[in-house]
Design goal:
The complex is a heterodimer of chains A (1129) and B (163).
Chain A (H helix, E strand, L loop, with lengths): L10 H6 L14 E7 L5 E7 L1 H4 L4 E6 L23 E2 L5 E7 L2 H8 L3 E6 L6 H5 L15 E10 L9 E9 L11 E7 L4 E5 L5 H12 L6 E3 L17 H12 L3 E4 L2 H7 L6 E9 L5 E13 L5 H14 L5 E10 L13 H19 L3 H7 L6 E2 L5 E2 L4 H12 L1 H5 L7 E13 L10 E8 L5 E5 L8 H13 L6 E5 L16 H28 L6 E4 L2 E4 L2 E4 H7 L8 E8 L21 E13 L5 E11 L6 H20 L5 E2 L2 E2 L18 E6 L21 H13 L5 E2 L3 H7 L18 H21 L7 E2 L4 E3 L4 H8 L4 E4 L5 H6 L7 E4 L9 E4 L2 E5 L4 H8 L5 H11 L4 H6 L2 H6 L5 H4 L5 H4 L6 H4 L21 H8 L3 E6 L2 E6 H4 E3 L2 E2 L6 E7 L1 H4 L2 E7 L9 E9 L5 E9 L6 E2 L1 H5 L8 H10 L12 H28 L1
Parallel strand pairs in A: 1-12, 8-31, 10-11, 14-15, 20-21, 27-30, 33-35, 34-35
Antiparallel strand pairs in A: 1-5, 2-4, 2-6, 3-5, 7-15, 8-13, 9-10, 9-12, 13-14, 16-17, 18-26, 19-20, 19-25, 22-23, 23-24, 26-27, 28-29, 36-37, 37-42, 38-39, 38-42, 40-41, 43-44, 44-45, 45-46
Chain B lengths: L7 E2 L6 E7 L2 E7 L5 H8 L18 E4 L2 E4 L12 E2 L9 H10 L8 H14 L5 H7 L11 H11 L2
Helix pairs in contact in B: 2-5
The chains are: A alpha+beta (1129), B alpha+beta (163).
Chain lengths: 1129, 163
């Protein structure tokens, strides 16, 4: 059975911007809702005063926890989360008050008037802390040991481990990912008092879950909440259950009798919306010399967060999958979900499956290595055959796991790829992983059934109604394809009604990969039934047997006779008003297996099981620790593929999310406070970070699925991380068990990793002061500054009062002399910095209109850029450059941010951007923001990537400008003008601190000059970052002038990302001067600077990575110029 | 201090007259001096195709063309825009081959980033695509997508951009 490639039913709306998402819907009299959240991970509300906010301009309603009914979210059944805090607050971000006002500005202003007196409480912000002896309890009333839920599960034969001759055990960790749906979470609620109905627009793939949950929280009957159809900008599990703002918007709407919208900003979405639960899987495999895995022991530990939302689910499915994957004889799995004072999680694509597969599939390669067996061969020795039953009770009717593995091997050219010889610096390897997954976990009766309504009018129009929603999974395409096939019509001729809970039949919503199986199954059954009725009726009209009627091309054909579907439908005895209508609810044929609240976990969980093997080829840079995935082969046994376009899309999208999980994505907290609050801090793959993905479908139709289909969407994520880890191990010998595999971990794992030796502190008196402060931090100073340190910062940022666009620099300077005035370049940093409370100019003077600031001139060999030239224009100018210095500058520009930013940002603006420290940018009241009385959060927090290793003072941040690093190496000069006239400053003298510069009030940079001599020197630039647009972890800019004998006459080596300002590595330069640089000199020079360093607790690896990068950039500078010279001669 | 409490402003300044050429039409709008282009497009002109997905210039969902160049309308002050603005709504005909290719190849899923993708790709298609696929991917790297894994988007752009 093959299905055609069709366009998605909503393709036009989704590609023209005409699809209305919840944020796009405008209702009359709409109010804006805002939530006040607790800033501390644990606290008691001593006093909460909302009176000033109530009286503030534009405010219509303010609600606090005690105003709302005392109800908890049902979630997956273990209801413990209230809609707002009452007295105790247990995570930094918990809802404390909510208000509705006429405008966003008024809502925000009123929010700032709410006064709360907090009593801060002891807290636990990691599983390790939560399980420590004597740890404070998150919920003393119900879990003194902080264990939220637990299970102990025994599968198969406990004695089977006795037959094993070998064992291997390790723990595998998957850090929390964020769903990062492109549509940030939002809710629009409209209470219709006349009808006693609440209308709700909010993105979700499970409309009925949300409607039922909101009704429950409000104390309404389920039918009183109507979830309306809208675009759904992604889900991935984050919105299969209600978040927090839906209920709050609903309460506000009921209170005010007006529609209320609450829209999370991206920063709020990152900080407060649901997340994945961090999960550790400790696994021991017991196996034979022949490579048969007999018994698996496992311990699953889930960071539950402050309330049980999906945490228990994650632990349950993970623990059951650990007993299900491969043909085991027995398994013993313990699982715990542990309360912490971190924000609650939620369902996330795969629900514990990706974590189980990462552990199992990493360990399979470790077993293969121990036995000296090929990893694909080892897996094939342990496969579950079709028709078998797992020790967990899963009945595997069909599996093409072996074909999946063979196909990966064939397409990756496995044997020769694995044998690839190693180049000492950049090594390649291949890896494979196999996953299995449910096609809908049937855990309650409701999860296995769905309804369908099909109507055929007398004009032949077909209406299909389903309660499902399509957040991008292609479910709408799947169901119209199934219906069209049965009715013999074009999928495009079906009018689809979906999502709206008042106009569509029951649907369980998507989740645990059940969309095609359950909803698709119901649509198919109803379609078949109405097709049968049409054939029967047509047969009667034609005087033939029903089986002789063929539905095709919108007609019913019986021999020579042909009727339109409309004619047949209208003539059917059940037709009413000319329309034939069928409404059916269909359930899958297996009984539910309740996963939660039970230790068993045993039972046939899903109608069918999907399999996927992914193979990847990676390149690992042993010098910097960077891992690059070169290609992916994704082979899926998904049974029959109903919607080929959507199926491929689900696989490639799953691979991309898996690469993020494997290599970069992680949410981080500093003592319970979230500091990953934007995409700049969250290394999600971009278009240039996803390699070509070959998608292959194998396997036969499964008897249970509609037309033989099995699941795709979640299993597509599951094997990726292990495949990458296995490939990294194949390439380097390093086994990484803690995701994401960022370069620091790769470098740390290398047996022959580059060693660096910062000189002892007594030899670096310039660091004594900061060393002393750092020493004092953990012993009380940090806590004291954090808690009691006074602050000169203010969160009030005045609105922009004026924007001037002068045409002359003279005019601009005059305008800038006004108090509160600041220059505006491209605005790409200034506007975000304003919203982060880091810049507060009221009068902006745009410099792009000054023509004298926009020129590019090459005069007497000196290259001069006007300060307001955009990065893109400079890049375009340099695109045909031949001088090595110019080319290095072009390469630098290309490595900055994104194309759109480069189109907007100006050269001077890039130089003047503020530092990008994630503690500062996430709003923490740190030294940089709040002054000397405040601590630097980087000292005790996560400083692995973006903080100084040398010369830092109280603030550990760095200047983020790559351009500044390169221009310093090029000995560039900046022309500066101000009230006192014009002067020239060297690039090296421009920056004075992290994101701080030497400009005095009223001064601007007007031009950047690159001297003639520097442009023809040997030069290169290189950068290590977490994603293609990312700021430098470390960057290196190099310029070398050689004399006629090839000796280095002049050297400029400047490093970015290592010090508060672009940092000249003088000791490295010295190692090259007056030498003809050989490889050994280059290596020595690359290392030399590291003895000056003064790294923090966890960022010493940047020395090795920086040295590795510098070595490469030095070689490149010399090679490039050799190539250019060769070409010229 | 927390993320939510950062976004505070003190007063609403005087509205000023703003003249923008959007999708070929000249529009006069009363707007605060600090209004960003995205809000003007969405709230005043009811062109909701451009989306706010990050609000700080990191994701590309709000991409529009100003003077033919793709810019991030969420960090563009409307007051400094003095060249014609084109949004996805104004590119519906020009982008039809691209949008059809996206539909045929799977170049969109949830649709939230799609308008930005279409606008950015339009700029590239007008200029002529880079020959190299890696260069094309790099040129599209300013637009985040969480659903598709990008490959089908790039394939669609390549399909219509081939001479």
């Amino acid at each position: 059975m093959t299905f055609a490639r069709i366009r998605h039913p909503e393709w036009e709306a989704r590609t023209t911007g005409q699809m209305d998402y919840a944020r796009d819907i405008k209702l009359k009299d709409l109010l804006v809702g805002k939530v006040l959240r607790c800033p501390y991970p644990a606290a008691r509300i001593v006093q909460l005063d909302v009176e000033a906010a109530r009286g503030a301009p534009g405010v219509v309603a303010v609600l606090v926890g005690t105003d709302l009914p005392d109800r908890n979210y049902l979630d997956y059944g273990q209801a413990d989360r209230p809609s707002m805090a009452r007295e105790r607050v247990v995570w930094a971000g918990q809802e404390v008050a909510v208000l509705a006002a006429e405008t966003e500005e008024q809502a925000l202003a009123a929010l700032a008037l709410i006064r709360v007196t907090w009593e801060r409480m002891p807290h636990v912000t990691s599983v390790a802390q939560a399980l420590a002896v004597g740890a404070p309890a998150v919920h003393p009333d119900r879990a003194v040991d902080n264990v939220a839920t637990q299970a102990s599960r025994s599968f198969g034969d406990p004695a089977s481990r006795g037959a094993a001759t070998r064992q291997i055990g390790a723990a595998y960790g998957c850090g929390p990912q964020h769903h990062a749906c492109m549509e940030p979470h939002s809710a629009l609620a409209q209470w219709d008092a006349a009808n006693g109905t609440l209308n709700l627009w909010t993105p979700t793939q499970s409309p009925r879950n949300i409607a039922a949950e909101i009704a429950q929280m409000l104390g309404l009957a389920p039918a009183q909440v109507r979830l309306r159809r809208s675009g759904v900008g992604g889900d991935f599990g984050s919105r299969v259950k209600a978040g927090d703002i839906e209920v709050l918007a609903a309460h506000l709407s009921m209170k005010t009798d007006r529609p209320v919208s609450i829209r999370l900003s991206r920063a709020e979405d990152f900080a407060y919306a649901k997340r994945q639960h961090e999960t550790w899987v400790d696994v021991t495999s017991h196996y034979t010399d022949e490579g048969r895995i007999l018994f698996r022991e496992g311990r699953v530990t889930v960071d539950n967060g402050a309330f049980i939302q999906g945490g228990s689910n994650q632990m349950n499915y993970c623990s059951i999958l650990l007993g299900s994957h491969y043909r085991l004889a027995g398994a013993q799995i313990e699982g715990r979900s542990v309360y912490t004072n971190l924000r609650p999680g939620g369902a996330f694509r795969g629900a514990g499956g990706p974590q189980a597969i990462f552990a199992i599939e990493s360990q399979m390669d470790e077993i293969a290595a121990q036995l000296g067996v090929d990893p694909i061969v080892l897996r094939k020795r342990n496969l579950l055959p079709s028709g078998s039953e797992t020790i967990t009770g899963w009945k595997i009717a069909t599996t093409a796991a072996a074909e999946c593995l063979d196909e990966v091997g064939r397409r990756l050219d496995w044997d020769s790829a694995r044998a690839t010889g190693a180049n000492p610096d950049v090594v390649r390897g291949v890896g494979v992983a196999l996953a299995m997954h449910v096609s809908g976990a049937i855990v309650t009766p409701a999860t296995g059934k769905a309804g369908a309504v099909i109507e055929i009018g007398q004009n032949g129009g077909v209406i299909l109604a389903s309660g499902c929603a399509d957040p991008g999974t292609g479910e709408y395409a799947v169901i119209v394809q199934l219906c069209a096939k049965e009715l013999g019509i074009n999928p495009g001729d079906i009018e689809l009604r979906a999502m709206d809970t008042a106009t569509t039949p029951f649907d369980p919503g998507a989740g645990s990969s059940r969309g095609t199986m359950v909803t698709g199954g119901a649509i198919l059954a109803a379609s078949r039934e109405i097709a049968e009725e049409l054939r029967r009726q047509a047969a009667e009209m034609a005087g033939c047997a029903a089986q002789d009627v063929v539905l095709s091309g919108g007609s019913a054909r019986a021999g020579a006779k042909e009727f339109t579907l409309g004619e047949v439908a209208a003539a059917h005895p059940f037709a009413s008003g000319g329309t034939l209508r069928i409404e059916r609810e269909t359930a899958v044929s297996i009984p539910p297996v309740p996963m939660t609240h039970t230790d068993s976990g045993h039972g046939h969980l899903s109608p069918a099981y999907a399999f996927a093997a992914h193979g990847v080829e990676v390149e690992v840079d042993r010098a910097t620790g960077a891992v690059r995935v070169l290609r992916v082969v994704a082979v899926h046994d998904a049974g029959t593929v109903i919607n080929p376009v959507g199926a491929e899309g689900q696989v490639v999208g799953g691979v991309a999310m898996g690469l993020g999980m494997a290599l970069g994505e992680q949410l981080l907290w500093q003592d319970g406070r979230p500091h990953v609050t934007g995409f700049a801090d969250y290394a999600m793959p971009r278009a240039d970070g996803v390699p070509p993905v070959e998608v292959v479908f194998v396997g036969a139709a499964d008897p249970a699925g509609p037309m033989g289909a099995k699941s795709i969407s979640e299993v597509a994520l599951m094997p990726v991380a292990a495949a990458v880890a296995n490939a990294v191990a194949n390439a380097t010998g390093v086994r990484l068990r803690d995701l994401p595999m960022t370069p620091d971990k790769v470098l740390a794992g290398l047996a022959d990793r580059p060693r660096t030796h910062p000189a002892p502190i007594w030899r670096r008196p310039e660091h004594w002061w900061s060393a002393a402060v750092r020493q004092a931090y953990p012993s009380g100073l940090f806590a004291a500054l954090d808690r009691y340190g006074p602050s000169r910062s203010t969160s009030k940022v005045p609105s922009i009062a004026s924007v001037e666009r002068p045409e002359q620099t003279e005019t601009a300077l005059a305008l800038l002399a006004r108090p509160g005035a600041a220059p505006l370049g491209g605005g790409t940093d200034l506007l975000p910095a304003r919203s982060q409370g880091l810049a507060a100019p009221e009068h902006l003077v745009q410099l792009a209109g000054c023509n004298d600031l926009r020129g590019i001139e090459d005069h007497d060999g000196v290259l001069t850029f006007g300060a307001a030239v955009t990065l893109a224009d400079a890049q375009a100018y340099l695109s045909r450059a031949t001088l090595p210095g110019d080319r290095a500058l072009a390469a630098t520009l290309d490595a900055i941010a994104t194309p759109q930013i480069r189109n907007m940002a100006t050269l001077a603006g890039n130089l003047c951007q503020q530092n990008r420290c994630w503690f500062l940018r996430s709003g923490m009241n740190c030294f940089k923001r709040g002054g000397v009385g405040r601590p630097c959060y980087a000292v005790t927090g996560d400083h692995r990537y973006f903080h100084s290793v040398v010369d830092a003072g109280r603030c550990q941040s760095v200047t983020p400008s790559d351009l500044a690093t390169m221009l310093t190496a090029l000995d560039a000069e900046f022309v500066i003008r101000g009230p006192k006239g014009q002067h020239v400053l060297s690039a090296a003298a421009f920056h004075t601190g992290p994101g701080e510069n030497a400009l005095r009030p009223g001064e601007i940079v007007t031009a950047l000059r690159i001297p003639a001599a520097a442009r023809s020197d040997h030069a290169a630039f290189g950068k290590l970052s977490l994603s293609s647009d990312g700021f430098a972890i470390v960057s290196a800019a190099v310029r070398l002038r050689l004399d006629a004998d090839g000796q280095v006459q002049t050297a400029r080596i400047v490093l970015g990302g290592v010090a508060p300002t672009p940092w000249r590595a003088a000791s490295s330069e010295e190692r090259l001067l007056a030498r003809v640089p050989l490889e050994t000199d280059i290596a020595a020079a690359a290392d030399a600077w590291t003895t000056r360093a003064h790294p923090l607790r966890d960022n010493e690896w940047k020395l090795a990575a920086g040295a590795g990068l510098l070595k490469r950039v030095l070689s490149q500078a010399l090679d490039n110029s050799r190539t250019v010279n060769a070409a010229e001669t | 201090m927390s993320v939510a409490t950062l976004f505070t402003t003190s007063f609403r300044p005087e509205m000023a007259g703003l003249v923008l050429t959007v999708n070929g039409e000249t529009r006069s709008i009363d707007a605060a001096p600090g209004a960003v282009l995205l809000d003007i497009l969405r709230d005043d002109l009811e062109l909701t195709g451009a989306k706010e997905a990050c609000g700080r210039g990191e994701c590309g969902a709000c991409t529009v063309l100003v003077g033919g160049r793709s810019v991030l309308s969420c960090v563009t002050l409307a007051a400094v825009v003095n060249e014609p603005v084109e949004t996805v709504e104004g590119l519906v005909s020009e982008s039809l081959p691209l949008r059809e290719a996206m539909a045929d190849l799977g170049g969109f899923q949830c649709g939230y980033c799609t308008a930005g993708m279409v606008v950015r790709a339009t700029e590239l298609l007008r200029a002529g695509l880079p020959k190299d696929d890696d260069a094309l991917a790099h040129a599209m790297a300013g637009n985040l997508c969480r659903c598709t894994g990008y490959r089908a988007i790039l394939a669609a752009v390549r399909r219509v951009g081939q001479p």
